[in-house]
Amino acid sequence: MQHLLSEPGHNLRLDADEFTLTEQQEAAFIEALRDAPNSTMVLAQARDAVVGVLTLQGGKSRAEAHLTALGISVGPGWRGRGIGSALWQACQSWLMNTPQVRQVLLCVLARNLEAVRLYQRWGFVEEGRLQRDMFRAGQYVEYAGDGPLAGQALAPFRGS
Ligand SMILES: CC(C)(COP(=O)(O)OP(=O)(O)OC[C@H]1O[C@@H](n2cnc3c(N)ncnc32)[C@H](O)[C@@H]1OP(=O)(O)O)[C@@H](O)C(=O)NCCC(=O)NCCS
To answer: Looking at ligand 1, which residue's alpha carbon is closest to its atom 29?
Structure first.
């Protein structure tokens, strides 16, 4: 995680020095994903190393039990080789077999155009934008050009 957060211009929501989870806390996070019926995690491994991670983190309250939030990251040097798409494919049967989950939420910066296009190909549609979602280097994310943003998306794998 630290090396992802240290990439210049990364699109993640933390700075490297803000990621302070201990190994024990990370283990607890993974156990919580394993134990929650509306959460799961998929790993991509190559040469005994983890090169990609997908998490679906379910809502914790009754009102949000039908939601699960998608997080996905592929290591530098491994991107653009189909690993992200394979991770998404790998969780499809879990989604199909978890009727409690009716909506997958995904937030992505609008400036991350390649990722946005990829998620649209996976079936996500934009539901909205938060104009001042992140503040970096003393400015709102608009400084990057295309306007900030986080959209929420809905995977159409199941009707409302
Ligand atoms: C976005 C991400 C998870 C996609 O996984 P991936 O394994 O690179 O994607 P795949 O190989 O399955 O798909 C390739 C497509 O992803 C797109 N893509 C998005 N970000 C990319 C990146 N940083 N490098 C390469 N391809 C990327 C490419 O445009 C490509 O589209 P194409 O097939 O039309 O050429 C991964 O690139 C990544 O972790 N990027 C950096 C962090 C990030 O932006 N995360 C998004 C948080 S919401």
So the answer is: 114
| Radius of gyration for the chain, computed over Cα atoms and rounded to the nearest angstrom | 16
Q: What is the pTM of this model?
A: 0.86
Transcribe 100-142 into DSSP letters. Answer: T--EEE----TT-HHHHHHHHHTT-EE---BTT--EETTEEGG
Choose one of 59, 90, 105: the last residue of a domain: 105
Task: Return left, alpha or beta for 128; rule: phi > 0 is left, psi -120 to 50 is alpha, else beta.
Answer: left
Which of 85, 105, 125 is the endpoint of a domain? 105
Ligand 1 center–CA 151 separation, angstroms: 17
> Is the shortest distance between the CB of 158 and ligand 1 below 6 Å?
no
d(CA 82, CA 78): 9
- Phi then psi dihedrals of residue 67, to 5 deg: -105, 145
Domain that holds residue 92: 1-105
Q: Can you tell me which atom of ligand 1 is nearest the CA of 109?
A: 48
Distance CA 89, CA 91 (A): 6
Up-side HSE of residue 21: CA atoms within 13 Å toward CB?
A: 12
pLDDT (tens digit per residue) in 53-81: 999 999 999 999 998 999 999 999 999 99
